Amino acid sequence: MASEFELIARHFTPATPGPQAGVAFGVGDDCAMLAPRPGLRLAVSVDTSVANVHFPADAPPEAIGYRALAVSLSDLAAMGAEPRWCLMALALNEDDDAWLAEFARGFHGLCRTSGTALVGGDVTRGELAIGVTVMGEVPPDLALSRAGARRGDVLAVTGALGGGAGGLVLWRRGERDLAHPLLARYLMPQPRLAAGLALRDLAHAAIDISDGLLADLEHLLAASRLGARLEADALPLAEGLVEALGGEEAHRAALSGGDDYELLVSLPATALDEATRRLAGLGLSLTPIGVTSTERGVAGVALDGHHGWQHFQGGGE
Amino acid sequence: MASEFELIARHFTPATPGPQAGVAFGVGDDCAMLAPRPGLRLAVSVDTSVANVHFPADAPPEAIGYRALAVSLSDLAAMGAEPRWCLMALALNEDDDAWLAEFARGFHGLCRTSGTALVGGDVTRGELAIGVTVMGEVPPDLALSRAGARRGDVLAVTGALGGGAGGLVLWRRGERDLAHPLLARYLMPQPRLAAGLALRDLAHAAIDISDGLLADLEHLLAASRLGARLEADALPLAEGLVEALGGEEAHRAALSGGDDYELLVSLPATALDEATRRLAGLGLSLTPIGVTSTERGVAGVALDGHHGWQHFQGGGE
To answer: Where does ATP bind (chains A, B) (predicted)?
Structure first.
């Protein structure tokens, strides 16, 4: 295969980002040299996407590149951070130039639309895997932790749920049209960066829904030392989900399917209208799905047998 | 295998770093929240170490953990940056608790001695590989780029060369004693962080020697648009290298063996004495090995047939 240097030069050296991107110099040096803005916190996260674990190895390469960055950016969205920079650690088994060009197109495309500068990375031999480190900035008093939820908060989710799991089911059935809304949700998820920025002065806490609503709700509640009561019927289901999976499986996908990359936020009831209005301005819905409580566990979920359920107390209904 | 959450909790949640480490909060949140110091540049780099590509899969797990961080920190050393934070993306095939404990001990040990706080990461299934993102800080006017070398500079290297390649040869011959100086050089390389800090106001340019002296010299010269004349006889050879490999192979290992993680610096001749004095204070030698010139290519190297040679013009001797 081509050397690491050749690969990097051919596909991953976009127009070197300049001072306006906060990059002093360094793409191609031992390190990238970044200029964080004074007074802001730096939010950093890494997510690795592995072929046939996190995405199908035969998915369109543009989607694979896009998605690897999207799932990392979703963590910045959940903190209310503004994306600035990323690094990519790419493991490749073969040097397929056409594949890499499409992969790079997907990755660079989301870099552009999200305002994220690719400032470094490496390429190694191995099973296809993409590790993306993202860095963003947020004013210290506006960062959205998982731990800030308060008793009596409304729990609400952006957009719709279950689309990630529904898209995976469709992929396994042979659907290959990326224009199908569920397949698009699974393979080209939109990190809710604008929603995180819009809600960071209203919400008490947030998390992105990557492992499934119930599992991620558990993380938020554990960090905040609270419980919750959900209205399972209130869950906003992804377009086409009931038609594709049937009603019961659709609800199961929304509760515990994972890969949705929507935001789950905990916010005071008094802020719900304003939050809803702001997201509507972004073309995005915000749906209240329950309230926090001091009683540990999650009550009010009627389904069982789904992933993550063992972490929860069964509810009353 | 144990879930990602269990693995992270068991081995990779050291005492959560506090404000003194510049960590506002966030280990276990969607992102870590860091507080870079105002006025400094942020130096970032990622390096992925893959089993049986970058290290033997059956190397001592403590060495594997140590080494994965060391090779990333070496990039900070080459910029003259002070390490602050790191993230680890770990791919594992099996959940061997004893192995992981040793691996974590090696990693955390170098975190401690280098002043690097582990602030996040992820664990995925796959062939053993460790991607480490490091972040450090450096005053803008002191950062050591590859591109700053000037005509007539002295080229000098810290420590000794060839030990990485020599250690690999010994490992393949069955040597397993980590106390053997060459094996230690290969499996437990010491990132030259203190040397980078000590030289950053004296040197014009620096690079760490990971691909081999000639290959990395080429990178530095290309970035600085210069050539060089080397004195191959001046190369400082690692302890035990000639005995292990013989004289010719020892020189070849020093020129192009790679994995040495020493620093190659370009500095004015007038600064050489002071630079040498400072490194001596750190217990480290600094050896002049040549000078830069405006004539492109590297002259003065008598050996040929080694990796990287094709990138260079043959020399005069």
So the answer is: 121-122, 146, 210
For residue range B31-89, what is the model confidence (pLDDT) as tens digits?
999 999 999 999 999 999 999 999 999 999 999 999 999 999 999 999 999 999 999 99
Q: Which residues of A touch B93 (CB under 8 A)?
A: none
Q: Is residue B81 part of a domain?
A: yes
* pLDDT (0 to 100) of residue B25: 66
Amino acid identity of residue B279, one-letter, is L
What is the rounded average pLDDT of the residues A127-150?
Answer: 96
Residue of A nearest to B207 (CA): A30
* B81-118 residue pLDDT tens: 999 999 999 999 888 899 999 999 999 999 999 999 99
Domain housing B132? 33-141
Question: CATH number of the domain that A126 lies in?
Answer: 3.30.1330.10
Does A290 appear as a known binding residue? no
B chain contacts of residue A91, beta-carbon cutoff 8 Å: 48, 50, 129
What is the per-residue pLDDT across A25-79, written as a single tens digit (0 to 9) for each?
A: 666 788 999 999 999 999 999 999 999 999 999 999 999 999 999 999 999 999 9
Same domain, A292 and A154: yes
State whether A129 and B129 contact (CB < 8 Å).
yes
Asked whether residue B19 is domain-assigned, the answer is no
Residue B85, strand partner residues: B117, B135
CB A161 within 8 A of CB A179: no
Domain contains B3: no
Asked whether residue B217 falls in the same domain as residue B112, the answer is no
Check CB contact of A33 with chain B, cutoff 8 Å: yes
A76: closest CA among A200, A184, A202?
A: A200
Q: Give the Cα separation of B196 and B203 in Å (integer).
A: 9
B152 & B218 share domain: yes
**Shared domain check, A148 and A83:** no
Same domain? For B155 and B285 the reply is yes
Q: Please indicate, yes or no, if residue B88 is contained in any of the structural domains.
A: yes
CATH of the domain at B207: 3.90.650.10
Same domain, B131 and B251: no
Instruction: Give the H/E segment covering residue B119.
Output: strand B117-125
**Local structure of A97: helix, strand or coil:** helix
**Residue A220 touches partner B, C-beta closer than 8 Å:** no
CA B211 – CA B218 distance, rounded (Å): 10
Counted across chains A and B, CB pairs separated by less than 8 A come out at: 188
Indicate if the pLDDT at residue A306 is higher than 70: no
Q: Does residue B314 surpass a pLDDT of 90?
A: no
Please give the Cα distance from B254 to B257 (Å, whole number). 6
